[in-house]
Structure prediction request, 500 residues.
Amino acid sequence: MKNYRILMLTTLIISGCSMVYELIISAVSSYLLGDSTFQYSVTIGLYMFALGIGSFLSKYIKKDLFNSFAMVEICIGLIGGTSSLVLFLANLYIESYACVMYIEIILIGTLAGLEIPLLTRIIEEDRNELRLTLSSIFSFDYIGGLIGAIVFPMLLLPHLGYFATAFLAGAFNLICATVIIFSFKNRLKKSFLFRIASVVLLVIMAIGMVFSENISRVIESGLYRDNVILIEQTQYQKIVVTKHKEDVRLFIDGNCQFSSADEYRYHESLVHIPMLYAEKHDKVLILGGGDGLAVRELLKYPDIKQITMIDLDKGMTDLCRSDKQISKINEGSLNSDKLTIINMDAYQYLKETDGLFDVIIVDLPDPNNEALNKLYSNIFYRLCGNHLTDNGIINVQSTSPYYAPKAFWCINRTIESEGFEVKPYHLQVPSFGDWGFNMASRAVLEKKHKLAVDTRYLSEDNIESLFSFAKDEVDTNTDINQLTKPILIQYYNEAVKDWE
Prediction:
C-alpha cells in the first residue's frame, strides 16, 4: 500500500511539472515573439491534442509497464528540464523557431498523455479496483496541474527565471523517476541502467540550476547587440540593461524602452508638450514611467508641487532608483521629495483614487498583450478623465504612426470617443524611428506657456512641426479599442509582423 501512495504522490508532482513546462514554453515564446494570446492558445491547444495522442499510443504498450513508465518519466524530465535552453538556442541559431516550439509541446504532451493510462494499468494489475484507482489518479493529476499553474507565475518565474525554473521542474520529474525506479526495482528489467540514467540526468539538472545565471548571461548576450551588464527577472517582467561605449539601453521582455543616446528626444516631447498646454502644473500623475526619465523632465518645473508615479513593478522602480548606470541617466529623479511612487496597477489606482491632477502622463509599454490592452481602452481613458482638473491635460505614449499607423490612430480615436479634444503629434527618435503621442483635454487645447526649461531637442521653432503628419502616416479607418473588444492588440501585432 505504501508503494502505491508513492505512485500517487509522484502523479501529483509529475502533473505539476508538465503544467510548468507548458507555461514556460508559452512564456518564452511570448517573450521572444510577442503576441501572448496566440502563443498561449497554441500551446494549450497542441498540449491537449498531444495528451490525446499519448493516451491513444498507450494501448500499444502491452508488457513491461514499469519499464515504459520509468522511461516516460526520464524522457519528460530531460525534455522539459532543457525546454527553456532549447527554445532560446533555437531562436538564436535556427530559422524556424516555431517548429522547435511545436515539437517540444507535442513531445511533452504525448509523454504526459502516456503517464495516466500506464499508471492506471500498473496499479490495476495488483489492486483490481478500477473505480478507486481512476478517481485517485485523476484527482492527484488535476491537483498537481493546479499547483503547477499557481507556483509558476507567483514563485518560480519571478525568483528563478526561465532557465532555473525549467531545470528545477526537470529535477522534480527525475526525482520522481528515481524514487519509482528504486522503490520498484524488482519489477523493472535492467533496473541498473534506469538507476544510472535517472541519477546522471538528475545531476545534470542540478548543475543546470547552479549555473542558470551563467547560462542566462550567455544566451542574453546572443539576443542583444550590445554587452549585457544587468539581468533581473521581477515578478512581472524581465529587465535587461546593455551598454556599448556610452550608450546604455534598457529592455523589458526583449523590447527596448530607452537608449541613453536619444531618450531625451522622447521624454522631452512626452513631458514638455503637455506642460506647455496645461493651465496649471501643481499636481502631475505619471502612469508607468518607472525608469524615472519622465520624472527627470518634470522636475525642471519649479511650480510643480507633487508628482505621483504609478508603476506596477516595484522591481523596476527599485532598480532604476538604485542602479548607478540608470540613476545617472535619470539624474536621481526617483529620490526626489516631490515624488510619490505607488507600485500598483494603473487601472486599479484610477478606480480607487479620488485625486485630481493638472497633467496625466501615460508612459506605458506598447499594447502587445491583454494586460496592457486595458490600459489603452476607452474605459481607461474615461477613468483618466475623471481625475483631471477642469482644464487638465492627458498625454499618451501611442507607438509609431509610421510603423503601426492603425494602432496609433486606434488610440487616437479611442481617446476621442470619451469626449476629449485630441491633438496627435510625433517626432523622430533614432532608436525607435518615428514615434507618436496623443495629447487630449476636455477643454479646448490652446498653448498657454512658452518653453521655459532647458532642453536638448525641443525649441519654440520646432514644436509646431511635430503636429504635422505625412499621408503615409495617417490611417483613420480604425475601430475604437474597447475593454470587451481589444482590437488594438490585433492592429499592433499585425504591424509587428509586417516589419519583422
